[in-house]
Amino acid sequence: MMLNFIDKIGDWNPQLLREIKGRLKVFNIVIAVCLSLIAQLGIFLYQLGSYPGEKYAMSGTYCNLSAGYQQRLNSVYPLINQVQQKINSYTSKPNFDPVKLQVLKTQLANLKTEQTKLNKLLYDTFCPTDQINLQIWWRDHWEYIFLTLSVMFVFILLVAGTYLLINNLAQEDHRGTLNFLRLTPQSEMSILTGKMLGVPIVIYLIVLTALPLHLLAGLSAKFAFSHILSFDIVLVASCIFFYSYALLFALISRWFSGFQPWLASGAVLLFLFITLNLSSHSTNIHNTATWLRLLSPFDMMGYLFGNLFSRYDQSSLDKLQLFYLPLGKSLVGLVGLHLLNYGVGIYWAWQALQRRFCNPNTAVLNKSQSYWFVGCCQLVFWGFTLQYTNNYCSPYVNNCYYDLNHQIGQNFFIIAFFNLVLLFGMMVILSPHRQEIQDWSRYSYHQVSNRKWFLNNSWLKDVIWSEKSPALIAMVINLLIILTPLVAWIILAPALNFHHNNAIDWVNKIGRMKAILSVALFISMMMIYTTLAQLMLLMKNPKRGIWAMGTVGVVMFIPPTILGFLGISPSENSLIWLLSSFPWVGIQEAATITVFMALLSELTVLTLLNFKLNRQIKLAGESATQALLAGR
Predict the structure, then answer these.
(1) Strand, helix or coil at 397?
(2) H or E element at residue 392
(3) Which H helix or E strand runs over 400?
(4) Burial (CB count within 10 angstroms: exposed 0-12, middle 13-18, buried 19+), residue 62
(5) pLDDT tens digit string along 341-388?
(6) What's the first-to-final CA gap in the chain, in angstroms?
(7) Does position 243 have pLDDT exceeding 90, yes or no?
């Protein structure tokens, strides 16, 4: 029967069978099971060490008498304060009364005697064994075991699994067997799925060995089975997400050599620690960055198992929304939101994996995929931004209400940061290198460069869709996808100011026209960076990628650094700041005509750079053609 099962696995996924045979040795199985059992026993015995025995303190949580004595002790404190105040009153000259003073002092002494007696009972005596609530202790005992195992599952699966996957692919690449796998009749999805299921199989075995105790502890701790199942579903989805990007990172970071697995697993470990800290201390989930936070299972754990972080307030996930849809109101909606968040990331990871595995030198996304990817990112960013909450509190009236402009304004810099990272990522991904440009110039560019009405033929389709054409038009399209919602908000912000508050004072100070012009300045600067990067990638230098990144970095950061070092403030010379990488600094101080001048200057520079790029592309195509003719 076992042989038949193994044969079925081999028929379904030969790569999985290869990984299982290589890893599920008897020694590995014994070590994995023993480690898991030892860890389970250690957790159980550690918690059992706090078992309330004969010397359990009267003040302990599980002593039934503790609450009564504590209540009596708490009632004594205010009585002592009242008597002491009366003594102070009758001690003063106007109200001096020796008889009442003596009665009050006797009463105070009796109260202090009772206080001392109660303190001794609570802290110096032991709780009778028949008054210890062992039922509650065992429930808390199982809860501790369940939560400890849950946290361990997260760290073991995500950190160790990421390390093993990247290390395996790096070794396969180093030995040359990865190219052999590419030549097999298996599909790339079959091979990578086999890797994902087979490489961390020892980790899976450790977790599976602990699952019975995990389920038993959860049910014994009175957690609903639906909550335990929801946690397992979210954890599995998070594993697929992180493993998918681990495989992608292994395929695109060959230059790191043996450092790849340590770098990636360390980044995952850091991410988990940060999100664990956020889950235990921060309840602010009404912001754009919530999608990133939800990639970690810890917030969901806090929602499902309320005592995970020992907080007085419960998880705020029940207030989570997406485009104002209250998905956090139900467990099904919340699990669905997590799966949607993971699903978007997993889909794009596998799109990139299928391209990169087949051809290690191709871009992870083509141009058409980049448009959809950027659009999906905008839906995620704006979906988590548009959440209804009482976010605006008037400074004059004790009243808080929801204000759309204030909500977007609070998240503006977060959206801008994510989109900047996205844009520079697209610039790196979509900009072709010298050989691709040569091929495109030879076979596409020169065929249409002399035709009339070239915008109506295949040239325009080429620059929009072709992977080998320059990335300029593709970057313009991606910029439009990103900036359209922001420009729409800038235009509509005054009309959306229903409460007539100061949430959009920045619009009134800057002016909508200058705000829109600042967006145009940003577009022109991004296109200048893209053109510079494309020019650098046309170099014959083998390190042209480093040259491209270095050139863009210098143009971005050196000018504003020099201006700051020289102490030139935007109020003194706004035009210079408008021409730098941070034009928004000088927008408020500049006149509208100055902003127009800065925009015209940047457009002039962009035009000259594109003339230069166009000439370089022509030369690249002509030189390649001449070389071919000369060789005949």
Answers:
(1) coil
(2) strand 392-393
(3) strand 400-401
(4) buried
(5) 999 999 999 999 999 988 888 889 999 999 999 999 999 999 999 999
(6) 65
(7) yes
Spatial neighbors of 103 by CB under 8 A, at least 6 apart, are none
Q: How far apart are CA 324 and CA 357, in angstroms?
A: 39
**d(C-alpha 263, C-alpha 423), whole Å:** 24
Give which of 41, 258, 35, 275 is closest to 156, Cα–Cα.
35
Between residues 628 and 418, which one has the greater pLDDT? 418
Give the C-alpha separation, 396 to 571, whole Å: 32
Backbone angles phi and psi of 132, in degrees to 5: -90, 125
The CA–CA distances, whole Å, from 273 to 270, 280, 300, 551 equal 5, 11, 15, 35
Whether residue 519 contacts residue 486, with contact meaning beta carbons closer than 8 Å, is answered with yes
Question: What string of H, E and C letters represents the secondary structure of 538-578?
Answer: CCCCCCHHHHHHHHHHHHHHHHHHHHHHHCCCCCCCHHHHH
Alpha helices in 431-511 (DSSP H): 434-440, 446-448, 458-465, 472-492, 505-510
SS (H, E, C) 497-554: CCCCCCCCHHHHHHCHHHHHHHHHHHHHHHHHHHHHHHHHHCCCCCCHHHHHHHHHHH
Residue pair 438/624 in contact (Cβ under 8 Å)? The answer is yes
Cα distance between residue 473 and residue 302, in whole Å: 46
Instruction: Give one word for 222, left, alpha or beta, with left for phi > 0 and alpha for psi -120 to 50.
Output: left
Helix (H/G/I), strand (E/B), else coil: 325: strand
Taken as a whole, the chain contains a residue count of 632
- pLDDT tens digits, 422-451: 999 999 999 888 888 887 777 665 555 544
Q: Using DSSP, state whether 126 is helix, strand or coil.
A: strand
Q: State the DSSP H helix or E strand holding residue 224, giving kind and residue range, or none if neither.
A: none
Among 64-73, 95-104, 153-162, 354-363, which is the least confidently predicted range? 95-104
Report the C-alpha gap between 53 and 451 in whole angstroms. Answer: 94
Q: Coil, helix or strand for 585?
A: helix
Are the C-beta atoms of residues 90 and 96 closer than 8 Å to each other? yes
User: What whole-number distance in Å separates Cα of residue 172 and Cα of residue 169?
Assistant: 5
Angle in degrees, 0-180, between the axes of helices 201-220 and 134-155, rounded to the nearest 10: 160
Sign of CA dihedral 417, 418, 423, 425: positive
Measure the CA–CA gap between 197 and 491, rounded to whole angstroms.
Answer: 50
